[in-house]
Design a protein that fits this description.
Blueprint lengths: L2 H8 L3 H35 L7 H47 L2 H6 L2 H43 L1 H48 L1 H6 L3 H53 L5 H23 L1 H18 L22 E8 L9 E8 L4 E5 L6 H9 L6 E6 L2 E3 L5 H4 L2 E4 L8 E2 H6 L10 H10 L3 H5 L8 E2 L8 H15 L3 E5 L7 H15 L3 E5 L3 H5 L3 E4 L20
Parallel strand pairs: 3-10, 3-11, 6-9, 9-10
Antiparallel strand pairs: 1-2, 1-4, 4-5, 7-8
Helix pairs in contact: 2-3, 2-5, 2-9, 3-5, 3-10, 5-6, 5-9, 5-10, 6-8, 6-9, 6-10, 8-9, 14-16, 16-17
The structure holds adenosine-5'-triphosphate.
Keywords: ATP-binding, Membrane, Nucleotide-binding, Transmembrane, Transmembrane helix
Pfam families: ABC_membrane, ABC_tran
InterPro entries: AAA+_ATPase, ABC1_TM_dom, ABC1_TM_sf, ABC_transporter-like_ATP-bd, ABC_transporter-like_CS, ABC_transptr_CydD, P-loop_NTPase, Type_1_exporter
Length: 567
């Protein structure tokens, strides 16, 4: 289905928007006819003394009423279009965002952050312009000329015939131009996405660029893509101006032809003054909506190019599954989790990252996963956290077979602490509250208790505004150890029965690492814990150590994963 048809079908706001535009367009066209009619009669009475049954005042009043009615219909139509477009924009942005949050982490990792930002921000805004301006204008460009043509046909068939000949010429040239313009607009959109990605990447890697003295190179690359964006934008504008020119040319020629034909017949007294003037007044109005569509051509192309990007993400299949077999609460703790012959291959990869994985995790067991770099430790945690689904094999939770753990019900039971927890730009309170489900109230006392348990008492006392102190990007800087402790405080608030730790002390100095491990000890009590670590000290404190061997996946799965148990 083409993008335009999909937009109309899938965005609930588009159908009522088109219906309203249609209804108001009919009302506006009728007022326009009456306005032209009254004006022609009024001019006839005033200047040529054309005899009429009614006096001039009646026509003046009629003219004023129709003029007012047209302005009101126009204003209401604009207001409705803006409202529906804003609703559609909200609808699209929220659907797009929820889809983004339901996609697996591997899919998100393959997407470019800059592209995603451009699509979510500029793309949705372009779509709003398309819906508020281009779509209503396309309805009017068909409706108004059709109504006017029927009326003109009643008054003077020759003028109607001239309009019927010129209008399709405009449509024909617009289609010709539109075909070329479509690819130009798409190209411009992709260049813009590329520019955003590179720019974001440069900002993120600013320190590394400075340290390697490569800032000038990055600037050159950015300048090159910026220039490509300028060229692409100019190309789309050129097409837009060309289309406007074609429209103006044919509209002017059409009006001139009608005026000439009317003038000649007036001179030869083959046509009465009032219908001739009415037709003459209506002819520019016949072309007006088509010309207005030409000036919205650019907005239309940009909107459609953006819509294609938006639909691309919306079309990604959602991997979350029906979670009937997954327990939704931790009332009785977490049951056994059993993996049998699990195999996992990342999309687009030639080799499995995990293969023949057989593992049973018992309730409240504490397991360390160790092994060489790249052997699949993090992949195993992703599988357990429900961010990845296995390519093959059997998963059982509490003896019940499930296809995957990728479900919201499962994720509620899991807390994942990784090497570098993300601190969001916001207050300490916001950063902690995000650990609990939306709508669930957390008292300040509970936040203080979580901070204390995470060993952040001293740090918290140093904050100028307590829980309202802004941290993260643009706020107070948080060290690696503090960030890890904030993550531990979040885990305390979350209270999930399965705790997954991915090298929680990897980037910390030995003293801080030891402190963090102490803070983790209390958290790990009475929970099922899986910790990925290269630290023999931490591993030895677990109930069981599992060694993942690299040949489990790197040499084509000849040997199953090997498990060794601690003493
Ligand atoms: N998103 C991905 N797409 C494709 N391949 C991936 C992806 N993530 C990881 N891999 C590959 O899967 C394999 C296992 O990676 P994983 O991160 O699980 O290893 P690891 O044992 O945790 O390594 P480390 O100890 O270095 O963190 C690696 O070969 C890696 O290149």
């Amino acid at each position: 289905m083409n993008v335009q048809a999909r937009l109309i079908r899938q965005l609930s706001a588009t159908k009522p928007l088109m219906a309203w535009t249609f209804a108001l367009g009919v009302c506006s066209s009728v007022s326009l006819l009456l306005q032209a009619h009254f004006m022609a009669i009024g001019i006839g009475i005033l200047f040529l003394r054309v005899p009429q049954h009614t006096n001039l005042f009646t026509f003046d009043a009629g003219l004023a009423v129709t003029f007012l009615a047209r302005s009101v219909f126009g204003a209401v139509s604009g207001w409705i279009a803006a409202r529906f477009a804003a609703n559609a924009k909200l609808d699209m942005r929220s659907r797009w965002m929820s889809q983004l949050f339901t996609l697996s982490s591997t899919k998100i990792e393959r997407m470019q952050t800059g592209e995603l930002i451009t699509t979510a921000v500029t793309g949705v805004d372009n779509l709003e312009s398309y819906l508020a301006r281009y779509l209503p204008q396309s309805v009017e460009a068909v409706l108004v000329p059709a109504v006017l043509l029927l009326y003109i046909l009643r008054l003077d068939w020759i003028s109607a015939a001239l309009l019927v000949v010129t209008a399709p010429l405009i449509v024909f040239f617009m289609i010709l131009l539109g075909n070329g313009a479509d690819s130009v607009a798409h190209k411009q959109w992709h260049v813009l996405e590329d520019l955003s990605s590179r720019f974001l990447e440069m900002i993120e890697g600013l320190m590394a660029l400075k340290l390697f003295s490569r800032s000038a190179d990055a600037k050159r690359v950015l300048f090159r893509i910026g220039d490509a964006n300028r060229v692409a934008t100019m190309k789309t504008l050129r097409v837009a101006f060309l289309s406007a020119f074609v429209l103006e040319l044919f509209a002017t020629l059409g009006t001139a032809a009608v005026a000439l034909a009317l003038g000649l017949r007036l001179i030869h007294a083959e046509l009465a003054f009032t219908p001739a003037l009415t037709v003459l007044l209506l002819t520019p109005e016949f072309f007006q909506p088509i010309r207005a569509l030409g000036s919205e051509f650019h907005a239309g192309l940009n909107g459609l190019a953006a819509a294609e990007s938006l639909f691309q993400l919306l079309d990604e299949p959602n991997e979350d599954v029906d979670a009937r077999n997954i327990p939704g609460t931790m009332a009785n703790g977490l049951p056994d989790i059993r993996f049998t012959d699990i195999r996992l291959r990342y999309p687009g990869e030639k080799e499995d990252s995990l293969c023949s994985l057989n593992l049973t995790i018992h309730p409240e067991e504490r397991i360390a996963i160790v092994g060489p770099s790249g052997c699949g430790k993090t992949t195993l945690l992703r599988l357990l956290s429900g961010s990845l689904s296995p390519s093959a094999g059997i998963i059982e939770v509490g003896g019940k077979q499930v296809q995957t753990l990728a479900s919201p019900a499962w994720r509620k039971l899991v807390t994942l602490l990784n090497q570098q927890p993300h601190i969001f730009s916001g207050s300490v309170r916001e950063n902690l509250q995000m650990a609990v489900p939306v709508g669930e109230m957390v008292e300040d006392d509970q936040l203080h208790e979580a901070l204390r348990k995470a060993g952040l008492n001293t740090w918290f006392r140093s904050l100028p505004n307590g829980l309202d102190t802004r941290i993260g990007d643009g706020g107070r800087t948080v060290s690696g150890g503090e960030a890890q402790r904030i993550a531990i405080a979040r885990a305390w608030l979350r209270q999930s029965p399965l705790l997954l730790l991915d090298e929680p002390t990897a980037h910390l100095d030995p003293l801080t690492a030891a402190d963090i491990e102490t803070a983790l000890e209390e958290l790990m009590a009475n929970r099922t814990v899986i910790v990925v670590t290269h630290d023999p000290g931490l591993a030895s404190r677990m109930d069981r150590v599992i060694f993942l061997t690299s040949h489990g996946f790197s040499t084509g799965c000849e040997t199953p994963l090997e498990y060794r148990f601690a003493d």
